[in-house]
Design brief:
By secondary structure, the chain is α/β, with parallel strands linked by helices. The chain has 14 helices and ten strands. α3 runs parallel beside α5 and α13 packs across α14. It holds the Pfam family HpcH_HpaI.
């Protein structure tokens, strides 16, 4: 599991593909996305759920092991008529090397425990938190077995609370901060932010992703392959950042752990940690 877990923990892009379009899975994996999420939930009509599961199982068999390790399946929420069959299908895929499940409408650690039991110890979980109840349970969800990251379904969250956010979504700042804090407390990789629905608005995508990074997120859900490269670029340290981090780390040993100044800026333990994180992210 370590290599599979590492792939999902490191991913900055999670690209959705409808399970009804299995021919797109290989294309999505080839897009450069860190992870691909095959969707059995919102992208699949109720009458197509069973056929979508069958298509998923067939598509997974045609993938290479390294591709399966980057694949998650978004299941329908617990309490829906399709949840149990979705989990059984994901379990069959996990047995073939698929990473695990993105659990929609996650609100209960008990549900996550049941999904983990069904998938077995190799199956990773990414709870998609989309409601006020999910936010209230954030810490218990983050600490549930086999959870590797939290993801924020901010559109459904707004609907659940009756919110009408502005373009900058300033109203959601405390919620996003809660995700970063819960992930940190549980020792998880940085959380994954929600989608940008404007697939042809590059400035909006860049602004949304920059906000995610500033708030401590480490990845973003994507709904179009064209979003992958800009999101990855926004999360990656720029050349100037990396050059600064390298100078900091190079200068630090000469000061024996004491505070020093570089480029007119004080360098202490938190700054050293930031420099190390930038280099590791690159």
């Amino acid at each position: 599991m370590p290599s599979v877990q590492g792939a999902i923990a490191r991913a900055t892009t999670f690209l959705f593909v409808p399970a009804t379009r299995p021919e797109r899975i290989a294309k999505a994996l080839a897009s450069g996305a860190g992870a691909v999420v095959v969707d059995l939930e919102d992208a699949v009509a109720p009458d197509d759920k069973a056929a979508a599961r069958t298509a998923l199982l067939s598509a997974v068999q045609g993938l290479e092991p390294g591709e399966r390790a980057r694949l998650l399946v978004r299941t329908n929420a617990a309490g829906t008529p399709w949840h149990a069959d979705d989990v059984a299908a994901v379990a069959a895929c996990v047995a073939q090397g698929l990473a695990g499940a993105m659990v929609a409408k996650a609100e209960s650690a008990g549900v996550l425990q049941a999904v983990a039991n069904a998938l077995g110890p190799e199956g990773l979980l990414v709870p998609l938190v989309e409601s006020n109840a999910g936010l209230d349970a954030l810490d218990t969800l983050a600490r549930a077995p086999q959870v590797v990251r939290l993801a924020f379904g901010h559109l459904d969250f707004q609907v659940d609370l009756g919110m009408e956010c502005g373009p900058d979504e300033a109203e959601l700042l405390p919620v996003r901060l809660a995700f970063a804090r819960a992930s940190r407390r549980a020792g998880l990789a940085a959380p994954v932010d929600g989608v940008t629905t404007a697939t042809d608005d590059l400035p909006r995508l860049q602004q949304d992703t920059a906000r995610s990074r500033r708030l401590g997120f480490g990845g973003k859900l994507c709904i179009h392959p064209a979003q992958v490269a800009p999101v990855q670029a926004a999360f990656a340290p720029g050349p100037e950042e990396l050059a600064w981090a390298a100078r900091v780390l190079e200068a630090a040993p000469a000061h024996g752990g004491a505070v020093f100044r570089l480029d007119g800026r004080m360098v202490d333990a938190p700054v050293l940690a930031l420099a190390a994180r930038l280099v590791a992210r690159a």
